[in-house]
Amino acid sequence: MSDTFNIGLGNNNPEVRKRSKTDFITFWEDQAKNLSWFSPWSNPLNWNPPFAKWFEGGLINASFNALDIHQQKNSEKPAIIWEAESGESRNLTYRDLWIEVQKFSNALKSLGIKKGDRITIYLPMVPELPISMLACARIGVTHTVVFSGFSSASLRERIEDSKSKIVITSDGGYRRGKIVKLKEVVDEAIQNFDFVKNVIVMERTKEPIQLNSKDILWKDLIKNASSECAPEKLNSLHPLFILYTSGTTGKPKGVLHGTGGYLTHIHSTFQWAFDIKDSDIFFCTADIGWVTGHSYVVYGPLLHGATEIMYEGAPDFPDSSRMWEIIQKHKVTIFYTTPTALRMFMKFGNKIPNSFDLSTLRLLGTVGEPINPEVWKWYYKVIGKEKCPIIDTWWQTETGGMMISSLPGIETIPLKPGSGTRPIPGVDISVVDEKGNEVSSNTKGYLIIKKPWPGMLLTLWGDDEKYKNAYWSKFPNTYYSGDFAKIDEDGYFWLLGRADDVLKVAGHRIGTAELESCIVGHNDVAESAVCGIPDEVKGEVIISFVVLKENVNKNSDILEKELYEKIRTDIGPIATPKEIYFVSKLPKTRSGKIMRRLLKAIAKNEIIGDISTLEDGTAVTEIQSAIRELQESITKKT
Ligand code: WTA
Questions:
Q1: Nearest to 101 by CA among 298, 390, 262, 376
Q2: Contacts by 36-43, CB closer than 8 A, 24 or more apart
């Protein structure tokens, strides 16, 4: 029996879950009515598997719902309280944000940008990032935000795939007190891209930069822009954003989200999970470059007219008290972060958080990776002082918003550390075996989604076939999440990690195939295999095995350095392996598939199970010698 914690906010509204059980389409229709629509939909759901069209025919605008309606009610309410590492701060009210967004919308229009175009945004965590996104949304442009830690090669790939006409960036951004020169990365990324018409440069650091013919400074562009820009009345299915994420194949996938369904999902889950009140100060630590930032830094809080903290920089800089200091300073009431951050804070000890006034906190959340029960309990005791419910929210870039979470905004149920509890109302999630049959309780299986949900991705940008193959081909008419899970005797879901070749390092999604193809791109490398092994803080770290081409006579230190450098420039520092092992062969099936199961077991120093039943009769002795060599290479190094 696992521990349970009975804690609630007294917001029992069992009606919500009850209603969701009668008819999920009508249920979601009712939720959609909480948003402002210019005209109602004609069809709540057109389900042509695997393509779902939610609220077809309805006209809506995300920026109007995030700004105009709140600015009419309470224009002076702070929308974004921005904090930098240095302690520098900015405060934007709903009116400020509304004006800035309209000015920037007009500025974009003045560059010839129109509805249906795409714009890539490569900015640090500054208010101009949500301003850019909302301006795009206002005029019907699809935004594609690229995490500012990605390399120029990764950025280039995304700009090319989305055929963005404009890239919005800054001279630089701050991370651990150092300036990261973003504009230089963009210059390299757009070389020979004629379809990129302009680069808009926001001055964050004021360091001198080279301005090229396509470049325009943000401040010059908005100088004469009018502060009135009517929102476009967009079809519910209009593409709001593309967000690239790693999958099991080499190239990142462009997850495409629409407008009406996505907003409905985010609006509802933000309310149910965070129990948002007018007086709350909400703080989500995610970078907007990831989906959590899109849904619960930008759209969720703003759709509710909430006040939120936005933070630029590393959570432990200038020292490990930075987050607690912000919570105390701004009287934060809701804090949403990752297990990786919590594991790091926990390592620093209780003294630091205990020396701050965290008494304003009333609700805590986590996202992105499984949370270890002991970390959950630490969060509950030391940060929440045993009075805040913890929501452990499971979801994905593809789901748009939360899918499994406890929901203090509508119901009080006992919490179990390490379990996300139950699916949100109106979604149908289950755990099945290889054949697609539901497994009995406490049995590990694949997490699947049986019915469409409003935050569901529309498709993969420009690739319906890949969309079908990646998510809908393993089980018929069923969404395959790529995660393992089990359901316990009380109907609680326990997430058990990825079932595919996707890694979760410090909560970031990294595809093994993407990394392997980068490593193999080095001239001296013949083959490579990467896998993840457990790590105390990051949850998982990457290790990679490399087979060199014959006759390579560089020493392994030089090679190792070159490979690390290549990974950083091709993908970005987040994909850097903890270790690179040089070996002469990899364990493979006769048909040439690398046996990752074995690699992982070897790396974790686990006993290798029975290998006599390998697929297609692969030579066992050969595999055994590869295993021995891999094991030796690991022992030699550590
Ligand atoms: C993992 C992040 C356990 C999972 C929002 C999923 C989690 C992947 C949790 C999606 C959680 C996310 N518990 N695992 N609460 N939340 N995951 O697209 O493996 O960056 O498939 O979206 O993160 O990662 P993504």
A1: 298
A2: 36/60, 36/64, 36/65, 36/69, 37/260, 38/233, 39/233, 41/236, 41/260
Nearest CA to ligand 1 atom 22: 396
Identify each DSSP E strand in 462-507 by its residue range: 479-487, 493-498, 502-505
Q: What local confidence, expressed as pLDDT, does residue 604 receive?
A: 75
User: What secondary structure does DSSP assign to 540-586, as a single string?
Assistant: EEEEEEEEEPTT--S-HHHHHHHHHHHHHHHT-GGG--SEEEEES--
Q: H/E element holding 629?
A: helix 620-637
Lowest mean pLDDT among 238-252, 362-376, 411-425, 611-625: 611-625
In angstroms, the CA 82 to CA 336 distance is 16
Q: How far is the CA of 112 from the centre of ligand 1 (A)?
A: 38
Task: Point out the least confidently predicted range of 263-277, 412-426, 623-637.
Answer: 623-637
Kindly state the helix (H) or strand (E) to which residue 159 belongs, with its residue range. helix 152-162
Q: Are 406 and 367 in contact (CB under 8 A)?
A: no
- The residues with which 337 forms a beta bridge, in sequence order, are 366
Instruction: Please report, for residues 174, 207, 302, 326, the alpha-carbon distance to residue 84 in angstroms, rounded to integers and kept in the order given.
Output: 8, 17, 20, 10
Phi-psi region of 58 (alpha: psi -120 to 50; beta: other; left: phi over 0): beta
Contacts of 302 (CB under 8 A, 6+ apart): 66, 67, 70, 79, 97, 130, 134
pLDDT at 73: 96
| pLDDT value of position 98 | 98
For a pocket test of ligand 1, which of 448, 509, 510, 540 has the largest count of ligand atoms closer than 8 A to its C-beta?
A: 509
User: To test the ligand 1 pocket, which listed residue (297, 483, 492) has its Cβ within 8 A of the most ligand atoms?
Assistant: 483
* 3-state SS record for 274-342: HCCCCCCEEEECCCCCCHHHHHHHHHHHHHCCCEEEEEECCCCCCCCCHHHHHHHHHCCCEEEECHHHH
Query: What's the CA gap between 630 and 624, in Å, rounded?
Result: 10
Domains in the chain, please, with CATH?
Answer: 14-436+455-470+477-486 (3.40.50.12780), 501-637 (3.30.300.30)
Cis status of the peptide bond prior to 318, with omega within 30 of 0: yes
Report the residue count for the chain. 638
Which residue's alpha carbon is nearest to atom 4 within ligand 1? Answer: 369
What is the pairing mode between strands 539-548 and 579-583? parallel
The dihedral built from the CA positions of residue 363, 369, 375 and 377, taken in this order, carries a sign that is: positive
Contact between 264 and 236 (Cβ < 8 Å): no
Atom 25 (ligand 1) nearest CA: 396
* Stretch 583-608: mean pLDDT: 77
Contact 90, 82 (CB under 8 A): yes
Residue 441 CA to ligand 1 centre (angstroms): 22
List, for residues 91-124, the tens digit of each pLDDT value.
999 999 999 999 999 999 999 999 999 999 999 9
Name the packing angle between helices 94-110 and 128-139 (round to 10°).
60
Among 495, 496, 500, the mutation site with the greatest number of ligand 1 atoms within 8 A of its Cβ is 495
Eight-state DSSP code of residue 436: S
* Residue for token pair 């950083």: 568
pLDDT at 611 over 70: no
